[in-house]
Amino acid sequence: MDTRERAGSITVTDVLDALSEFRAAETAMLRRTRSILDRGASDALALRYIREATLRGDGMRPTELSALLGLSSASITALIDRLVLSGVVVREPHPSDRRASILRSTSHSEAEELRALDDARRPVADVIASLDSEELGAVLGFLLRMRQAMDEVARS
C-alpha cells in the first residue's frame, strides 16, 4: 500500500492516472487475447458492447456502436459485417423504425468467448473474488458511475 493511501491523500489526479493505466492494461489484454478469438481489439470491444445491450434486452443500433467506438460509418459497417459473418452477431429489423436495424449477440458468441477467455480472465476474477462485500460495492458503484460519465462523453 502506497504511503499516500495510508495518509488519505489520494488525489483526483492519482485516480485518473490509475484509470489510464488500467485502460492501457485492458487494451493490452484485449490485444493479447484477440489471437485467441481471431478478432481485433475493436471487434472484441464492439462485441462486448453488443452483448451488454443484448443482455439488457435492448440490442444496439449501429449508430450507437459507432459513437461508442469513435468509428466512421464505413468502418462500423465493415466491423459489423465481420461480426455477422462470423456468426457472433445478428442484424434484426428495428421494431419501430423500418430504416434502422438492431444488433444482437448470439448464444454462439457468448459460448465462444467464455471458452476462449476463461484462462485470460481467471487472474482478474481471482482479484475480484478476493474483495469483501464492502469493497465490491465500492468498486462496482465507482465503475458504473465512471461508465455513465464516459458514455456521456461519447454521446456529446
Strand adjacency order, main sheet: 1-2
Mean pLDDT: 82
Number of domains: 1
**Main beta sheet: strand number and arrangement?**
2 strands, antiparallel
- Taking all Cα atoms into account, the compactness measure Rg is 18 Å
Helix vs. strand class: mainly alpha
Spans of at least 5 consecutive residues whose pLDDT stays below 50 are: none
Q: What is the CATH fold-level name?
A: Arc Repressor Mutant, subunit A
Query: What is the H/E order?
Result: HHHHHEEHH
CATH architecture annotation name = Orthogonal Bundle
Number of strands: 2
Q: What's the N-to-C terminus distance?
A: 37 Å
Q: What would CATH call the homologous superfamily?
A: Winged helix-like DNA-binding domain superfamily/Winged helix DNA-binding domain
The 3D shape can be described as globular
CATH class type: Mainly Alpha
Strand content: 5-15%
